[in-house]
Write a structure and sequence with these properties.
The complex is a heterodimer of chains A (650) and B (541). Helix content of chain A is 52%, strand content 13%. With 650 residues, chain A is α/β, with parallel strands linked by helices. In chain A, the strands form 3 sheets. A 10-stranded mixed beta sheet of chain A has the order 6-2-3-5-4-7-11-8-9-10, sandwiched between helices. Classes of the chains: A alpha/beta (650), B mainly alpha (541). Chain A: The chain crosses the membrane at residues 34-57, 382-412, 457-478, 490-510, 585-606, 626-646.
């Protein structure tokens, strides 16, 4: 095997400078590796506080970019507006008629027939789509009505949707919103400068109606066993480019307009759409709110400014993290349609004046004109941003580092566990000495070419499998559990808490006990590493990777899950001390889904937490929101793994 | 299975070879070890028949490439069955004989065929692993010529160490390996009285009744170290920590390799997507398997089929010929001279058969032409598509040559350097194909990962295992995610996905170089016992 000897056989080595340099290289590599390893072992937790502090700095103005329109064709607010008091009169009269109709009947078919006849009256192709939603509570019957206004200058390949739910979330009739939709249907037919079709859509009940309509519009058909059954659509237009959803639950007396941007699973529309709508509203002098707060021009102090923006950011992240549909616009993102909801606010603190209906109408008209100008899809601006105010944003380049820093702590922890399980306790490598007249160096005694301990693999695999199987089983059983909760009149929060606590107890005590009964209980021996290190290595790597991957889809959820779970996983290890055992269990409990729900109910009341459980389960079964399966398939099983680690043998 | 001539050839001591035969006897295996393999099969059956995973995965870019996609095969089949030339539409790029297979197959049997193919691949890998196991048992760690104890210091230039520390004293140099004394936690646990009593009882129990060792203890070295030597495996004398410079190797369990293949998520999704890549994989595995048996004709036939199906496996000639020359005790050049005409004859016969089937030579540009000139730039996990989308047209032929030569150019140096380890050459060649071929999919990765798991003795010497497998894990999550962001959500773009395919490729390349380095290092240490025991290493590792 002279092959592997390289220079050894041929040249007589001498201590030339090159040889000395070569000698230094493996040594330096070992020294650097040793110190990197030592530093990471001791200080990798530092990324977590750095990430948290960075997050706390995000509300400061230095991190905000003023929103500006990147797409030149949009030219927001640069057109002449034609929306006049005559059109406002139409809005008001429609509002009265809608209210009147809503007080007379509760049948969605009659509502839809009214909208259809009005849209037909403007010369549009209008029709009705019926749908039925079967749930545990019984069947819900609904109807969408919509009309298509063909653009005078277009070829019918692109369309803009103006939609409105018949009722808002609180069950109040959205009379003004429907009034604006009908008034705009009348308004757009008067002009010939439109180059995209308009689709006027009124859904009831929503947002399920929007889902039925969108699926039918994009050619899907319900399967025979699906909960939602709907008719196909009679008339079509082109590819929908943008969608505006109007929710005006008042009588025309508003203080501000709120924008709702985050859609299903926290997916955002293109920043240009948001900026255009906000700019158009601000040109008309309408205060634009985000999460029910209008940012004033001036603040008393920097501290109040910080608090105000921190408050909005927290609300924003909360809403995005849940990823549940807040209004109709949320469902459009799935079909690559940029959409936004405008919701009127009646009263805000510090409002100087009321917004007139004509201002709102002109703002909407102005936004529609901008979208009408577009020659291609919105693609210039970001899709990844966080909004501290309606008129500014934090781009991905600024907010992603703290998100990654939080999760990368887990990846480093996994690396540390890998090292610790392989080669425990190294000392700083001593310098190797070259052997005279040979190409060899004498290796210092504590170095070896191979890892010194075997990593057990059977127990870790079984543990990971059992925990993930529990999560999958829980997801499979969740409809049944919810059904029992509803029909046994049990609070879903109690039900969830019961299931989660019982399982955590099983996993925290039974699996470690079983492991102790088995041969090869996972304890370390002279030649094998303890199994808990490998379990923790795998669990940290998986959670870290999951949270980093999640940060590209829904950074807020990634933050919300990383903040409690990273310390819990950093702490988790078998211990003999009662105090640290208690601390670890408390940390793991706080990071578990039930701990998070408990924290929510302590902070905002039990009702919020109950509502959250119900909505997230419904969001998964009705709209395909990922929060529920993600928690059950990835997050909660790993939390169980944490419980198992605490109970394992050293 | 032939009697193994190589053990005699390697002059294994008599006592050792007797134990070796008892250990290598496949029938002595507990049927329990086959459970994971059957779990893999049952998992496929459940996923095929009770979920819609198959129809979902058929459309995924990670598993369905233009040259292996089931959807395209159906298109070609439809055209063929309706009397239209199957390559006419420019959609179908697969070998014509595949049409002949599926032409007469009832649809209900198609999933079963793919599951059977995967199972057959796994059985082939198990047979290869049995050979590897025998090699492992027969492996000799030459004894040092002089009985130097480790205490003897080597003559060094400057005897005074720069960092004087108690650990550097020679007496300690053995002790620290016996017991990881420097780590407080570990020390505490091993010396903890109730636990250690409990454990010692278990160890004795295990060593007395060797046959009922549970599988999760199979890799536990504590049993091997502390048990009596009569029941320890073949290289038991070296298992004693008297020579801490020699690694303690666990003998391979062949069924585990089959399980590693069948339970690998990459191979599961490849099977579910009904990718015709499986035909190539089974031909590759069959080629290696028959080369191990010394059956030149069958081996060459299988490799010719693999090369016929997807062109690149022609490279598998290298490990096959190395194996044939080892197994038939002939020089490599002689083996090559006898095998190459056979390979070419089989290949020509297969092409001729294809011509008879479709009646024209049009299939040549539509199959091998597409593989070589890469006209279909549908995104996949490889390195070609993005590069050739971005490239100016006039540079395309040049870079096509560069890329395609790069696939093939590594095989000869690898075969030369590792000629004494043909299975490692097989691993390296399949890995290079999986990384650099024009339309790779995760099925290629699944195959070479199975070969990788056969080389368990190298794990100890590898430096970047954590990095590699974390990167593969990240790429496997982020790849589909970024593809979704790019193609469906519209919020990402092609660079997102391409970056992840680069990570995937980089992780695989690091894995390949790391294993190569580990093999070289291990071989050096094995064959230089004196230098090893004097704790000497090459300056330039």
């Amino acid at each position: 095997m002279a092959l592997f000897r390289r220079k050894a056989a041929s040249a007589q080595p001498s201590d030339t400078p090159a040889a000395v340099k070569e000698l230094r290289r493996p040594h330096m590599r070992r020294v650097v590796a040793y110190y990197v390893r030592k530093t990471l072992t001791l200080f990798s937790w530092i990324f977590y506080p750095v990430g948290v502090i960075w997050l706390l700095l995000l509300p400061r103005d230095e991190f905000h970019h003023k929103a500006s329109v990147d797409e030149n064709a949009l030219l927001p607010g640069q057109t002449t507006k034609y929306f006049s008091s005559m059109d406002m009169y139409a809005v008001n009269s429609y509002r009265l008629r809608v209210n009147q109709l809503a007080s007379q009947t509760r049948s969605p078919a009659e509502y839809a027939a009214f909208i259809q006849s009005e849209l037909n009256g403007f010369g549009m192709e209008a029709s009705i789509q019926n749908f039925v939603l079967a749930t545990n509570q019984g069947a819900t019957i609904g109807a969408n009505s919509y009309g298509i206004s063909r653009a005078a200058r277009g070829d019918g390949t692109e369309a803009i949707v103006i939609s409105s739910p018949w009722m808002d979330d609180g069950g109040k009739v959205n009379a003004d919103g429907v009034g604006y939709v009908l008034a705009f249907a009348k308004f757009v037919t008067k002009f010939s400068h439109w180059s995209k079709d308009f689709i006027f859509l009124v859904t009831h009940p929503s947002p399920m109606g929007t889902r039925a309509w969108l699926e039918a519009y994009h050619g899907e058909q319900p399967g025979p066993n699906d909960a939602l059954q709907y008719d196909p659509l009679e008339t079509h237009s082109g590819a929908i480019q943008e969608a505006l959803n109007l929710e005006f639950g008042g009588e025309g007396d508003y203080a501000a307009i709120e924008i709702l941007v985050d859609g299903l699973n926290g997916q955002l529309p293109n920043a240009d759409l948001v900026t255009t709508v906000v700019n158009c509203a601000q040109y008309e002098g309408i205060p634009v709110a985000l999460h029910q707060a209008v940012t004033p021009e001036k603040f008393d102090s920097n501290w109040t400014r910080y608090l105000h923006k921190a408050d909005i950011l927290a609300e924003y992240m909360k809403s995005q993290a849940l990823g549940l549909p807040r209004s109709d616009h949320a469902l459009y993102a799935k079909y690559h349609i940029e959409s936004i909801t405008l919701r009127a606010i009646k009263d805000i603190p510090g409002a100087q004046y009321r917004v007139s209906g004509e201002q709102i109408g002109r703002a909407i008209e102005s936004a529609l004109r901008s979208f009408n100008n577009l020659l291609e899809r919105l693609h210039h601006a970001y899709w990844f941003y966080i909004m501290p105010t309606a008129a500014s944003y934090i781009p991905i380049s600024v907010y992603i580092p703290p998100v990654i820093l939080l999760s990368v702590t887990l990846v480093f922890q996994s690396l540390v566990m890998w090292w610790m399980s392989g080669e425990p306790g190294q000392t700083a490598p001593a310098r190797s000495q070259r052997i005279k007249d040979s190409p060899y160096v004498a290796r210092s005694p504590q170095l070896s070419s191979f890892n010194t301990r075997t990593r057990p693999i059977f127990l870790p695999i079984v543990t990971m499998f059992l925990c993930h199987a529990t999560g999958a089983f829980a997801l499979y059983m969740s409809p049944t559990i919810l059904y029992i909760a509803q029909h046994g009149d049990i609070n879903p929060l109690n039900m969830a808490a019961c299931v989660l606590i019982v399982t955590a107890v099983i996993y925290g005590f039974m699996i470690p006990t079983l492991q102790r009964l088995m041969e090869g209980s996972g304890a370390s021996t002279a030649t094998t590493a303890p199994a808990w290190m490998v379990v923790k290595c795998i669990a940290c790597a998986e959670l870290g990777a999951a949270l980093i991957a999640l940060s590209t889809l829904n950074p807020s959820l990634s933050i919300a899950l990383a903040i409690p779970s990273v310390p819990a996983f950093l702490l988790a290890k078998p211990t003999g001390s009662h105090n640290s055992f208690a601390i670890q269990l408390i940390a793991l409990f706080l990071a578990s889904p039930i701990g998070i729900l408990g924290a929510i109910s302590l902070l905002t009341g039990l009702g919020t937490a109950q509502d959250l459980v119900r909505r997230s389960a419904d969001g998964w079964s009705l709209y395909g929101a990922w929060l529920f399966p993600f928690v059950l398939l990835v997050y909660w099983p790993l939390n169980l793994v944490g419980h198992v680690i605490v109970g394992m043998e050293q | 299975m032939r009697a193994d001539p190589f053990t005699a050839e390697l002059k294994v001591p008599a006592a050792r070879s007797a134990v070796a035969q008892s250990l290598s006897r496949p029938n002595s295996e507990d049927p329990v070890v086959r459970i994971p393999v059957w779990i893999g099969v049952v998992l496929r059956i459940i996923l095929f028949f009770f979920t819609n995973a198959s129809s979902f995965l058929q459309l995924r870019v990670e598993v369905s490439t233009p040259v292996t996609s089931w959807k395209r095969l159906r298109e070609g089949l439809y055209l063929y069955q309706n009397g239209i030339a199957p390559y006419e539409g420019g959609v179908f790029h697969q070998a014509p004989l595949l049409l002949a297979i599926f032409n007469f197959l009832p649809p209900i049997l198609i999933p079963i065929l793919f599951i059977a193919l995967d199972y057959a691949i796994a059985r082939g890998l198990v047979e290869i692993a049995q050979y590897k196991r025998k090699l492992q048992i027969a492996e000799i760690w030459p004894a040092p010529t002089s009985d130097d104890s480790l205490i003897d210091a080597v003559p060094v230039e400057a005897p005074k160490p720069e960092i004087p520390s108690p650990e550097n004293t020679p007496a300690d140099s053995v002790a620290w390996l016996r017991k990881p004394a420097s780590d407080d936690d570990v020390l505490q646990s091993t010396d903890d009285i109730p636990q250690s009593v409990h454990k010692r009882k278990n160890v004795n129990f295990a060593s007395q009744e060797e046959d009922i060792v549970p599988p999760w203890l199979a890799n536990d070295n504590c049993r091997l170290v502390q048990g009596d030597s009569a029941h320890a495996p073949i290289n038991a004398p070296q298992l004693k920590p008297s020579d801490p410079t020699q690694p303690v190797d666990v003998i391979l369990h062949p069924e585990d390799i089959g399980a590693m293949y069948l339970l690998n998520p990459y191979s599961i999704i490849t099977c579910l997507s009904q990718s015709t890549l499986l035909f190539t994989l089974i031909a590759i595995v069959g080629g290696i398997q028959y080369a191990i048996k010394g059956n030149r004709n069958a081996s060459m036939l299988f490799i010719a089929v693999a090369a016929y199906l997807s062109f690149y496996p022609a490279m598998m000639m290298a490990p096959a010929i190395l194996l044939l020359s080892t197994q038939t005790s002939r020089p490599v050049m002689q083996a090559l001279k006898s095998a190459l005409p056979l390979f070419l004859a089989f290949l020509v016969a297969l092409l001729g058969l294809s011509y008879l089937l479709v009646g024209t030579w049009d299939f040549l540009p539509s199959t091998y032409g597409v593989i070589l000139s890469v006209p279909d730039l549908t995104p996949n996990i490889g390195l070609f598509w993005y590069f050739f989308i971005e490239m100016f047209e006039q540079f395309r032929p040049f870079f096509l040559c560069v890329f395609q030569i790069m696939v093939f150019i590594f095989v000869i140096p690898i075969a030369l350097v590792f000629r004494e380890h043909p299975l490692f050459v097989a691993y390296a060649t399949t890995a290079i194909m999986a990384i650099f071929k024009s339309y790779p999919s995760v099925g290629d990765t699944a195959l070479y990962l199975a070969f990788f798991t056969m080389h368990q003795e190298l794990y100890k010497y590898m430096r970047n295992m954590f990095l590699v497998f974390n990167a593969l894990f990240f790429a496997s999550i982020l790849g589909p995610l970024f593809h979704y962001l790019w193609v469906y959500a519209g919020s990402g773009n092609a660079n997102f996905y391409f970056a992840i395919t680069l990570v995937f490729g980089l992780a695989q390349i690091i894995l390949l170089t790391d294993t190569g380095h580990a093999l070289i290092l291990r071989e050096w240490e094995r064959l230089h016992p004196d230098l090893r025991r004097k704790r000497v290493e090459l300056v330039h590792q």
